[in-house]
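Input/output pair, single chain:
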Amino acid sequence: MKKILCLLLCMVAGFAHAESGWVMCQPDSKVNIRQNPHRNSEVVAWGYMGDEIELDGRKNGVWLHCIVPCETGEGWIRKDYVSTDPPEELEEGTYIIEKNKTLARTSIGGKVRKKLKAGQTVEVYMVTALWCVTEEGFIKTNCMVFQPKGDNDAESIFGECD
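Output:
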C-alpha cells in the first residue's frame, strides 16, 4: 500500500510542474521538436503556429522539454519558439508600427530580421501578451497600435513600446 501511495504522490508531483505553451512561428512554417536538446538531434515531431504543447518543466539551455498531443510525441523545442501566454483572438483591423526602428526578429528575442518604420502596417497572424507573429517577423506587441476595421482612430492597446 505504501508503494502505491508513494507512486501516486510522485506522479502528482511530476504533473504539478506541467504548464501549457503555444508554438509561435510563421503560418507557412513549422518548428522542429527534437529527440535531444541540440540542433543536430533527430526531429521527432513538428509544432505549427498556435499548437498547444505541454511543458513538463525540464530545461537544457535554450531548450524546453515538451509533449505534443497532436503528434503523440515528446521531445525538445527551442524556447524562442514557445509562448506561455495563450494566443489572443485576432480582431479585424489594421496593426500599425508605433515608432521608428521597431525591430522585427526571427523568433522570440531572436536575431534582428528588419527595422520597421512608424506608421507602417503589418499583417498579424498570432498575438500573445508579449509578442506578435507578423509577415515581417516577431514584433513586441507593445510596439504596435491597433485600428479596428471601420474606425479612423488607432489605439495603443498594448502599452508603451520599449
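Confidence is low (pLDDT under 50) at residues 1-16. Helices lie at 2-16.
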